[in-house]
């Protein structure tokens, strides 16, 4: 008798913050997980390291495949060979500030990359369920707060425009071609694995480094911006729940509570017993040509239909991130001796600094 096939998922963007948490969640649930990774000069995939060390998982239920989002032939071959039941499309240029510097590649990967994937799926012998990681940035400067699934899209950044295109295409393939395709309209979600150029991680990393005497000050952009910040592991669970429902649909994943960047700074520095005002400087290079101001999501539909709710509150998220950065710096110190931390470590920096 043939062994029953374990559920199989494909994750694009598996090396990112969400991809790593989603891999862990799906592997825990017994899935076989395939991930698309783009080739670069380093084989280090820090966020997946714990999974690589577990030999019962790596080589048996976790498989990585090289493909950039513009590599249609390779992605098609991988999907034909793996025939996943579910595709979680998380890959893309995810930095809003950087998208003003690199609008063309942002659209190429985030907008066109999604369309290419949908077109490949259209030709597959099986029709996997498809989830697109959409964003609150599609609302731009909304005329109402909180926003819900019916709020008009008015993006104000190249990133937001690209996500709007991808979101609408996902809807179109669902409505016109009968795909089981969903948009997870995610508000900001953070964790110790957050990329270092996003404001939360930049702040927690700096608070930790300054408290240990390894950084002098923090250069910041707008402190007035307000965001609805949640905890990343909970958001990937929301994504999974969306694909387990019997009907496809779009859902807001958010906490419904907003805070300012200044609130985040205050809280993070308080965790290490410092006053934030003594350690930061505003630097115009970190301001954006256009800023979204009031993004707060209404997660009622996700709560009523999927039973999903964010659990971890703002203060707890900040505290976890600061503590994790303190541990990270301490372990780096043990391994390589003390070294100063630069406040300008953003790999996307070009003429204007966008971290
Ligand atoms: P990250 O920036 O941490 O991860 C992005 C992932 O996409 C990485 O694995 C990256 O690979 C991959 N990637 C980028 N460009 C390409 C490409 N050209 N080809 C193949 N892979 C590529 O993002 P998050 O995990 O935070 O977010 C996941 C998704 O959710 C993103 O699409 C983001 O825009 C969206 N989103 C995130 C929110 C958040 O608050 N985190 C909120 C709303 C939406 P590599 O490791 O090589 O860089
Ligand atoms: P965002 O997150 O643009 O909301 O996109 P980010 O953390 O980059 O910025 C949040 C707010 O902080 C302000 N800010 C700064 N931002 C950065 N990065 N660096 C700074 O020094 C700084 N100073 C102030 C920004 O101007 C902004 O107002 C995130 C990403 O995860 C997207 O992929 C996702 O779609 C949205 O969240 C929802």
Describe what you observe in this structure.
- The chain has 355 residues and is α/β, with parallel strands linked by helices.
- It is built from eleven helices and 13 strands.
- The protein has a seven-stranded parallel sheet, with helices on both faces.
- The longest helix has 23 residues, at 314-336.
- The site of guanosine-5'-diphosphate-rhamnose (GDR) has 23 residues, from helix 4 and helix 7.
Q: What is the architecture of the domain at 8-192 and 229-256 and 296-313 at the second tier of CATH?
A: 3-Layer(aba) Sandwich
User: Which series of helices and strands comes N to C?
Assistant: EHEHEHEHHEHEEHEEEHEEHEHH
The assigned structural class equals: alpha/beta
End-to-end C-alpha gap: 55 Å
Do you know the CATH topology of the domain at 8-192 and 229-256 and 296-313? Rossmann fold
Unreliable segments of 5+ consecutive residues:
343-355
Number of strands: 13
Strand content: 5-15%
Overall geometry? globular
